[in-house]
Amino acid sequence: MSNKVYKSIELTGSSDVSSDDAVKNAIKRASTTIHELKWFEVLEQRGRIEKGQIESWQVIIKVGFALED
Q1: 67: closest CA among 30, 28, 33, 34?
Q2: What pLDDT was estimated at residue 3?
Q3: How big, in percent rounded to 5, are the helix, strand and coil portions of the chain?
């Protein structure tokens, strides 16, 4: 069926490695309970600094998924 309906939600992912890894963590976790994830959009990025070094990243993303028929 080509007339799908989609829903979007916001997720916040975090990582000690990178902002890309924070996105991947959020999508990986969401995909365990939400099926048919189709796209994502990065809304915000931020990080925590400690002793002059980047300590961690936090990324807010919007993800879209197809509602089941």
Answers
A1: 34
A2: 81
A3: 15, 55, 30
Q: Is the pLDDT of residue 65 over 60?
A: yes
**Secondary structure letter of residue 31 according to DSSP:** T
Q: Could you read off the pLDDT of 18-52 as tens digits, one per residue? A: 999 999 999 999 999 998 899 999 999 999 999 99
Residue 22: count of CB within 10 angstroms of its CB: 25
Please state the pTM of the whole predicted model.
0.86
> What is the residue whose two structure tokens read 């990065």?
42
Nearest partner of 65 among 42, 44, 19, 34, judged by Cα: 34
Smallest Cα–Cα separation from 19: which of 55, 69, 51? 55
What are 52's two structure tokens?
Answer: 């002059």
Structure tokens at 36: 């048919």
